Amino acid sequence: MADTFLDSTELVLNMGPQHPSTHGVLRVILKLDGERVLSTECVIGYLHRGVEKIGENRTWQMFAPYVDRMDYVAAVSNGLGYCLAVEKLLGVEAPPRAQAVRVILTELNRIASHLLWLGTHALDIGAITPLFYCMRERELILNIYEKYCGARLTTHAFRIGGLQYETYEGFEKECLEFCDIFEKKIDEYEELLTGNRIWQQRLKGVGILTAEDCKEYGVTGPMLRAAGVKWDLRKAQPYSGYEKYDFEIPTGQNGDTYDRYIVRMQEMRQSARIVRQAVSDIPAGPIMAKVGKVIKPPAGEAYVSIEAPKGELGYYIVSDGSTQPYRVRIRPPSFVNLQALDKMCRGALVADVVAIIGTTDIVLGEVDR
Amino acid sequence: MAATPWESELTQALKEEFGDQILEFSSYVGQNFLVAKPEAAIPILESLKEKHDFDYLVDITAVHWPERPEPFDIVYVIYSFARNERIRMKIRIPEGYKPRTAVPVHLTANWLEREVYDMFGIEFEGHPDMRRILLPEEWETFPLRKENSILKMDQRWVQENLGIESGQ
User: Fold this and answer.
1) I want to staple B92 with a disulfide (CB 3.0 to 4.6 A). Which of A61, B9, B70, B111 is the partner?
2) How much is the pTM?
3) Which of residues 125-144 of B touch A (CB under 8 A)?
4) Omega of the bond leading into A17 within 30 degrees of 0 (cis)
5) Is B104 on the interface with A (CB under 8 A)?
6) How do residues A75-102 score in pLDDT, each as one tens digit?
């Protein structure tokens, strides 16, 4: 009897699925000892739509818009990964002009995704102002998308083999104008947050994930780089002409929440730098490679991955030579990164859990697929 | 296009270590992969990690081929930061075979294997937490098996839990 009495100090707290700080429908079961977290368990799948099964029942082209609905704040990156994977099986490459436009739109998308992350993360910590600032600048990117292809979020901007649409009149100018505005504004965000004592106290030393932990858990993207590993697929295995552009891979040292914040801020600056270079030199020429109206990749399989805003986004696709994929496996960065949540939360305070979930930058549409 | 043989220092070393446990070294569209016997999968992963720097398990997934005598492919995607090289390992398993878990080698295998179980019904021997991950626990079918149509997958669950006639 005495034992059961002592055991009762452990408290189970259910966080989510309806909770503003879980960034969607994530449910985390926290085991607590007072304010300290003993362990966490994630319950996911609330947004599962069976995207991989849908893929087996659609033609290769018809499936492309579905991938936009996984990581819906970085739809362009999803589309790029899928198109590259199918192109790999087909043995075609998008023409240089299409590649340059793809890079521009994808890098703008990285900024948009990071801006949404920054705004909501700051909101979670209690800083409300950055959200409005971030949404304001993100709007400019969405306007460019809307002008380019008619959609703002789930854009379906790319096609297998290249692009559907030519750039519109003034596309280059608007991208450069965005960079001009954005590069000033990002200094403003940093003024609000980077040196802010409350911000630093809430983030520094919280949710540490070392480089070894990251590799064990398969964590990639800004979280891996914040732990000091200088690895970015755009540099390690360049695709879509990234080797032509000059940019740095920002890294941190401590692998804590604060370093992840710094890394993402630097990444946005680097993305703007890539956009500038790409816009100033878009080659002339066709925007579509020679692919038939009916896409039938030869029987075989390929794994193609890209550096999405959240980490390594991979597509393992299997073709049986027909017009439909035999199997589409999507390796989502959010799903894999979320697995390290338990490691990061153990021993932290309840309030830190919110900061840690925020800094993992998950999108539940991608976790659950 | 057909797969071509893949030969390198790595394949030599693996051949010496595992002999006929590895059935095939191939390369397709510039991507290298090996096919191994099911029981050799975990020792190969270990060897790749300890001796050859393949320290990042990118993905584990499966493919269902109902007409084959061994209807499931399990695919491991493995990457090495030091060598900047990505390879795949494939094992072919019969229905009901329980492959050993990769969790002791790479912690990331935990959720990835749970997802394979959830979608294909393949159980991993020695896995610390072999439960469904994305679908509800009472769900009855394994959706990514080819015999399951995308329509009308688990009517009973939908009717009982959502109070509607059909999910479609």
Assistant:
1) B70
2) 0.88
3) 132-136, 143-144
4) yes
5) no
6) 999 999 999 999 999 889 899 999 999 9
